[in-house]
Design brief:
The structure is a homodimer of 290-residue chains. Chain A is globular and about 50 Å long. Chain A is mainly alpha-helical. In chain A, helix 1 packs across helix 17 and helix 10 packs across helix 11. The interface between A and B is medium-sized, with 29 and 29 residues.
Chain lengths: 290, 290
């Protein structure tokens, strides 16, 4: 923390980014103001975003990224009854928050890149602990069996192994990057997060906050297949959804038609939502107002 | 602050109360997920609720209620472009937050009552400063001309007069209580705020968070005429809306019909929304989960 942004300011930007993302409506496939899932509802996302505030603030001052993910995951479920809401988003938010606390906004990207490279074995261990706590679809066992470093999916039983092999959280993200677009951000210098931020800021200049969020989400979805869908179903399904999003962008289908179809088919592009949260955070820190 | 709740916990409960209130949908007449006003939108309320967090937290530790209202009003508009969003709510939230920071939840009401009675001339001066900053419909000039203490509506020019006459913020609320149901809470021992909290908690046991919010709002609106409507239009209009709300409670009209009608007629029961925020805060502090 060196005086560019206060921890309180950055924590509010991060909480607001999570709130604006879930509030973007209609947001095909994911929870929005009009769509709940059976066991997770819109308000669970709102409560989680507010509830984790102290961990977001702490991230500016201290704490490894793995440790912060563990604390945020635990705090989130104290405030709501819908289970895991923001695990993927934390993977992006914590390095970005730390980077924003370290220097001016024009160095945000460089600082984020350095921060993820400096993650440690401890971060990896805590990341896996957090991961097994929330049971997200971060990796399927087959992904990991194919991986010659011998990590297993749950992380349980492999924690000592991580230490022995000197595997850091950055290493885990590098291994996961092939099949996970959130992990890929760590390796790719947060390319798509900053791309989302640019789109959001540019659209906000001429449109409402909601339009900026929804249209950016749609363009992101049309640009690359969502890996959350690929892991839950398969890559064909993810590419199919990407094609539908492109149909909406090119006006062959309405936003509402896509929203209805994905909701009925229970397809949720969860990783694209995580990138959107990162993009909204960067946009807010860069001075965008709601 | 004596260890019952941390400032961070109480600030999160207060921010979440504001977020849950505005998210209750359909909420006849007021901004909700599906209804914006021309110059104020749903997202402005979300951003304001998150933006004032540090002032909510500070309230647990220090600061007179008037001073806190001034700081919260200034901070709110740094985060959104919709103008005044939560002024009325602050009048209730700050004493409740301070009371919750002081002792256990079963003493919340007694402590709140004592806290408002202990407000000072400084609080009154700062309250009027905040009031003139946000230009809310708290008092019309005619209300105040009828008042023999010689306060004027804008507060400007009367600040010295307040000091000379030893008028405290509690005195102002007492004077306003005849025509303002938010001010009346200070005099009435937060009767309706706690009533709202009981209703919300009871409805949450068997229904969704949204149902608990919307149905309680409706019952509150049906129980007493909303004084924000009375001041914007007149008491007849407020009683008319109360009657419509009763029609919905007794199933002679649907919630959606009432919502559409009030929105078209531009009638917003803003004071009932303020009471709801107080009720949601009390419910959250009492252990309700989203």
């Amino acid at each position: 923390m060196n005086g560019y942004f206060t921890p309180s300011y950055l924590a509010r930007c991060a909480a607001l980014a999570m709130i604006l993302e879930v509030s973007g409506t209609p947001k095909p496939g994911n929870i929005d103001r009009d769509h709940d899932y059976v066991s997770t509802k819109y308000e669970d996302f709102l409560a989680s975003a507010v509830g984790v505030y102290p961990v977001l603030e702490k991230a500016c001052l201290e704490g490894g990224i793995g440790q912060l993910m563990l604390e945020a995951s635990a705090e989130s479920v104290r405030w709501q009854t819908g289970g895991n809401t923001h695990f993927g988003a934390y993977i992006l938010l914590f390095p970005l928050i730390k980077a924003a606390a370290e220097g001016p906004v024009d160095q945000l990207r460089t600082n984020s890149i350095n921060i993820v490279k400096e993650t440690t074995v401890d971060d990896a261990v805590n990341f896996y602990r957090a991961f097994s706590m929330v049971e997200v679809r971060m990796k399927k066992p087959e992904d990991l069996e194919a991986d010659d470093r011998g990590l297993d999916a749950s992380g349980t039983g492999s924690l000592e192994e991580l230490g022995r092999r000197g595997v850091t959280m950055f290493d885990i993200m590098q291994i996961s990057s092939k099949n996970d677009m959130v992990a890929r951000e760590w390796v790719d210098g947060f390319r798509r997060s900053f791309e989302a931020a640019d789109k959001i800021q540019s659209k906000r200049k001429t449109g409402t906050m909601n339009d900026a969020t929804v249209l950016t989400y749609l363009e992101m979805l049309a640009a690359e297949p969502d890996t959350f869908i690929a892991k839950k179903y398969d890559m064909d399904k993810a590419v199919y959804v990407q094609g539908l999003a492109l149909d909406v962008v090119e006006r062959r289908m309405t936003l509402k038609e896509l929203s209805d179809r994905l909701f009925i088919e229970k397809i949720n592009p969860g990783s694209t939502a995580d990138l959107m949260i990162a993009g909204l955070f960067i946009a807010l820190v860069s001075g965008m107002r709601v």
